[in-house]
Every structure is written in C-alpha cells, then in structure tokens.
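pasting for the record
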Amino acid sequence: MFSNKPIFKISAILLLLIAVCCYSFIGDDPKKPDESRFTAVALTRPGDLDEPNTFEVLNDGRVLISERKGAIKLFDPVTNMTKTVATLPVNTKYTSKTGKVTEAEEGLMGLTVDPDFDKNHFIYTFYAPITEKKWMLTRWKFENDALVAGSEKVLLEFATQREVCCHTGGGMTWDTKHDLYLTVGNNTASLLSPSTDETPGKESRDDQRGTANTNSYIGKILRIHPEANGTYTIPEGNLFPKGTPKTLPEIYTMGHRNPWRPSIDSKTGWLYWGDIGPDATEDTEVSPKGYDELNQARKAGFFGWPYFIGPNVPVPPFNYVDGESAPKKDPLKPTNTSVNNTGLKELPPLQPAFIYYPYGPSAEFPLVGTGSRSSVGGPIYHRSDRPKAKRPWPAYYEGKWLATDLARGWIMAISMKANGDYAGMEQFLPSYHPIEPIDLKFGPDGDLYVLEYGSVWFGKSDNAKLVRIEYNAGNRKPTVMATTNKQGGTVPLKITLSSAGTFDADGDALKYSWKVTSPGAQPKLYPTANPAITLTKAGVYMATLTVTDAKGAKNSKSVKIIAGNEAPEVKIDLSGNHSFYFNDKPINYSVSVTDKEDGSLASGGITPAQVSMSINYTSEGFDYVQVAQEQSSVDASTQFAVGRALIGNADCKNCHSVNAVNVAPSFTDIANKYKGNDVEIERLAHVIRGGGSGHWNRQIAMPAHPGITLNDARTIVNYIMNVTNNNINTMPVKGTYTPKVPAEDNGNGTYIIRAAYTDKGNKNIPKQTTVATIFLHNPLVLASNASVIKNAFIKVNNLDGSTNVIGRQNGYVVFKKLDLTDIKQLELSAYATALENNPGGTIEVHLDAPTGALLGQAGFEQTPVKPKTQNWVKTDIKATSGMHDVYFVFKNDKAKPIDPLIIFNSVKFEE
C-alpha cells in the first residue's frame, strides 16, 4: 500500500514532530470526574417490574413506567414504593397463518409526558389494542395517580400485521418547540438475508412495503405537534410537505429497522436514536453482515434500510422467486420498485450512519465490543436543560451523547466535534453493569435514570429495575473494605478483623467502628480499625465495619464469620515454576486437603472424590481474578467455575437460563439434548462464535460472538453439558498435566489450576469451603502491564497500535511476586531511535528493589529509526528461586534526567 522508496527528504525536526504526533498519551483527562463520584442506586425492589420498557421522570421526582403487558406503574421516591396506576388492554401475541400462537413484541410499547405536564397533566401512550390489528398513539389525563376515565384521545392509528415477529419501536421524545417524535419499527419478519421478499402472500417479509415506503408509517420516526384539543398539526421541515402525493406528512425520517429511544439535542435540534440491524454475521454474496446503528439526523432524511446498512454498505434486493439478487441501489437516487410499495418510487438520497457495529469487532469503534447487539440510544447532556437540578453533572459531559446497548450492557459517552461530526467515545461508569438497559434519560434532579428490562425475555424478571445514577460533586463516602484473617474455626475462635484497603477519595481522616452480631446475642462494638477478637460461642456471626469521614459521611461493609467449624486447608503443590507455563512441558501437581473435623486426604478421612480439581486454559482477556475471588461463596461442586465466569462475562444470560425457558432454551434442555454427542458439542462451540438458528424451532436466531475464542467457547459448552452434574471430582488429586495451547488460540492466555473442598460442617454450624488457585501465565509479559511504573510513562504508537513504556534515567517498571524458579534467561523487546530522541542505554534487572541484587542487563543502542522487526535482546540471569518483585531499571549516566532513554515493549521469561 505504501512505497518503501523515499520520495523526498524531511528535516530532522519535522520527523521528530511526526513521531510525536504518532503517539497518544494514556491517562485521564484532568477534567474528567473520578468514577467514585457516581453512585448507581436501585430504586425499585426485586419483583416490582414486569417487562418494563419506557419511563418518564416527573418534576416532583415520581417516575411513570410502562410495561409491555399493559401496566403503567408509578415509583414514589418519598415512600420508595412502586404501584400499578393503570392497565391498558393490549395485544401481546402473534398468530401465524397456520394458527400457531407465539409471544409478540407488541403491547404497551411507549409512554411520555407532555412538556407542560404540570399544567395540563397529559401523558401519551403508544400501544397495540386487543380488538384490532393496529397501533394507537393516544393522549390521557393523569391525575390523582390514575388515568382519568374517558380522557383518552386518539391522535394517530395505523394498521399492523400480527403473523410474524418483529420490531415495534415505541420510543418518544420532545423538542424545544413541543413537537413530539415517535419511533415505529418495521413490523417485518427477521431475516438473515435481505428483507425484500415480494412473493405473493409474504408481504410481512418485505420491508419495501413499509420501511422504504413513503406512504407507510412503519419503519419511521414520526414528528407531529400535539394540540390542546387532542389533534395534531404538522411541523415545518418534515421529510414530505403536506399534500405531497403518495407520502405521509408525519414522516420525519425513514429507512429504519427498529428505531428505539430517540432524543433531541436542545442546542442544535438534531435527533439521535439507536437502530437494530439484521442478524447476518458475515458478508455473503446475497447480503452483507448486519450492523446496529447509533444515528444522528440533522434534518429529515432517508437512512437506508432495507437497501443500505451500517457504513452505507449496499444490500442488493433479493428475488425470492428466482433466487437472484437485483443490482445495488444508487445511494444518491435510491428507488423502491416493490410490488408492495404504495408510495413514491424515487426515494430521498441516503443519509450516512453515525456509529455502526457488527457482531464481531469493530475497527472504527472498537470500544463497543462484540457479541449480541441491541443499540438503544439515550440522551444528550446539557446542564441548561435542567436549571433546577440538585445534582448537575460536571461540564466534562456537556454536549455528550449518553447511549446504551441493551445486549452489551454498556453506556457510552459519545463526543462530537464543533460541527457535530463524531469525535470519540468512552465507556461511562464501567463498574455499573445494567441488566438489559432498555431506556435511559436525565431527570429534573440532574441524575441519569436507567431502566433495566431484566434477564428474562417475554417474562417477569426479579432483576428488572429502575436505577438512578447520582453525581456527587462534594464530599464522598469512604470506600470500605472488610476482611478477616480466616473464615472461621473452632471455639474459642481468635480472629483479626481487617479494614485494609479502606480509603477516602477526598483524603479525609477516618474513624472506624466494628459491630459483631449473632442471633440471640448482644452486639459487641470495637472502635478500632483492625481489632483482634475472641468468639467463645459457636454460631454464625456478622462483623460490620462502619467508617466515618471527617465531614460525617458514612459507609459500611460486612463479613461473615463461622465459629465452631474450622475451615479446611487446601494446597496445590507444583513442580517447577509457579508463575508461568511453558507449552508442552509437563507439570506435576499434587493436592493436599486437611480439615480439623473431617480428617485429610492423606489419612483417608477425605476421599479424592470429595475434592474438585480442575485445570483450564483461558484465552487472553479473561478476568481470572473473578475466579480467584469466589472462594467461600461457593461449594466444591462448582468445578466448572471458569465456564460459569465466561458465561457471566458474556451476554449468554440475556437469552438463556439454567432451568427456565427464556427467549432461548435453558442450559438444562441443551445438556439433555446434546450430552454424549461429541459432534454436536463441538458444533455448539462454533455456533457460539458464529451464530446459528433452526435447531429449536424458534424464530430468534442465536447471535454470533466472534470475540469469544474457540477455546473459551468450548469451555462454556463443557459447563452447559455438566450444568446438572452433581459430581465434584473432575481430575485426579495427583497427576501430570501437559500445557498445550489450542491451535486456534494466540497463546497469550492463562492456565487456571484450581482445587476446592467443602467440609461436612459441625452439627448446626454451616459448612465451609476453601479454594486454592494457581494462575500460570504466558511467559511473554508486556512492560505496560507492570504493577508499578516510576519515572517512566506509557505511550501508544498510533501507527502499529503497540503500547510501550518510555523510561528515563533510573526509572523502572516492577512486576510483583514473580516466581523465578528455573528461569535462566530473559529476552527484552525494546529499542531507541534518533527520530524519537532516545539516546539509548541499558535495562538492568534487579531483585526486590531498584538497587537490589543485579540479575542481568541488556543494552540498547540508538538507531536512526525504529527497527522493522521487533528488536529482542537476550540476557542470562543468575539462578534464583521463589517469589520476588522483579525491577527493570533504565540506565544511561551520560543522558539528561528528562531524556526518554528507551522504548520498552515486553519481556520473555525463559527456562
């Protein structure tokens, strides 16, 4: 693509400027508020909501919530109670031409309140009545916590088909002129191939009949101006002037598949929304892969579907009679020639998608992730929109779009350039993991409200809830950590309570108070940070640490203590290194278990069958800390902890449950159907990655998850196949295991060696579980992943994407607690160039301190430009055993203190 021949000479200064521009610093924007200033508060209780989909926050703080099955509920922040204030009779079923009845996306799909609600008490609903196959946009009066009988006025209604699924829309919003926007889905069968079936009798499979039809309401975003008498007028600037033949004047934008939660930027008047794309996982001769979109409309326009998708990729209409694709449409002059089209043949020119992403990784928008997708949209933040806000957000978010995805569960803060073009995005509050967020908007108090649909589709979920995200610009509560030096033991039990890790983000002085309680006993108080206590009576105790800062803000955390039953002791002994695995080199392992009441493995009091032993390879990116933290929260039967963690980190539970049938079959049903069939089990792993449909007679296809490696997919399937397995032991408690990285994997993953034992308890005292875990990592370690980086800085090279550490004189990086047993040599990848003003120098390897024992060193001389291939330099190191902190120290006594000596990328630990 680029010629290697020099075209002209560039001055050294210009080259240096280019090099600097090719890097971007890693670090927080100084204006960005710390995540600790945001708190997600669940407002509704488990079980309060049943398929919630939209909501509105009233000026007095009450929240109206619509549910698909027809209920309108009201949350009261004074009582913290949720009650049903109305139930509309709505259709929730499809009936196919063969008479088969299935759950539909129809029902009560949207609710909004009039901008002048405090004066007129008007609310608007969008729903599918039972009596007729149609959608209705109606207005009601809401007074005294009820819909006023007889107050309903129909503003707009239009026909719908109820034979096949899907897509309803139902989102509503208002602009500053009090114009109402309503999103309407395409009401068309979901197909992997183009939705252009003109076969007689299959009109419900043709999006040209509606979405691309200028004379249809479906697949549109409508804009009207409601009048006081229950009618509406047409605002200026809609897509088709009133009176234009074969058009509807209410249409603002068209060419949508399933537009969701619209919002208006009050400063620009521009419209934003999410639109769900088709399920195709890859490009084929018939159709390109599907994309979800987060869109911006600066004016009325046509947004492509079903002729274009994502980055303006053409979708050639497909002739379902002869099996041939028609020519691709002209984006400047698209036409609709379908026999089902009742509108104009010539359509408006195509408008570009703003943000778009497929099932797989997105090169343009990598932060959106991979897997199931269901773009929702969200609000644009302007502080001036809520002048009376008690908790206004900081200026950092001014003008940014807070958008979410129901399936992926993130909220992105999307920035725009001064002209409105896309500038960038970052995940907002990554520690908050909403369960299928289906609507979000700011309330008059300044808080961001998020409505979580819950994990069960077409059913009531206990985890459906309304959440309020509060911003605290002032004093923050302390962050509390409460632990004990052991889980419990026989009485008298001497135990130390620890507040280690507790801190105050504002730097305030802290006061500590522990309260130890047990049923039927007087609480005991300990006004110190880390008290040593003695429990003389057997039982279950709760130790609660309350921490108060200097301004009176409090926070608490509790830890359970079991007195009267000693926790078992579990150890894993390995031959060789305890930090790294080496491919094809056998590992000898042995598990020992001792329990004060039960005996031991060695004595026979505990049998090998009672011990869970597993070794799993997890691909790069797996959060292995999650498995390490399970410990006492589970019992030893959870030998498939890695598989369960992979499922928890993915979106599997959006569609599947362990026992109950959700939108997809339960894990138990899958296990019963495929267990013992190795061919099908291997197919399932590929289906997880590539998607699939047709094996369970369900209309909704399983989405692709190309971001999950084949190895991790197999681990997930293994867990599913054993979800009903009550046996504990999976591997011998003593043996040899040979690491062999799967051929399809990049080899940068981790082996998790895990042993667990649950004791038998002691009469009425609960059982205790102890888990021992060893993590063996790839011996190639990135310098930027070091535990400590001092007098050095991280930079990302925008040309090749590499992340490096740039070290100054006596700067260093530290990798803590590495086992150097059997490590004889290190290979360091680093370089120094004149182009980037690196004088070069030496990287010294020291033990336990920057001036500790010198293990080895590697020199890096300055070169004119970066080496074309990765530059590896070997150094032998002194024989060392056991765990140590390993320091890589940058040295060049002739350089200036501020000089960036060396660009350090990675190190290999070799035997």
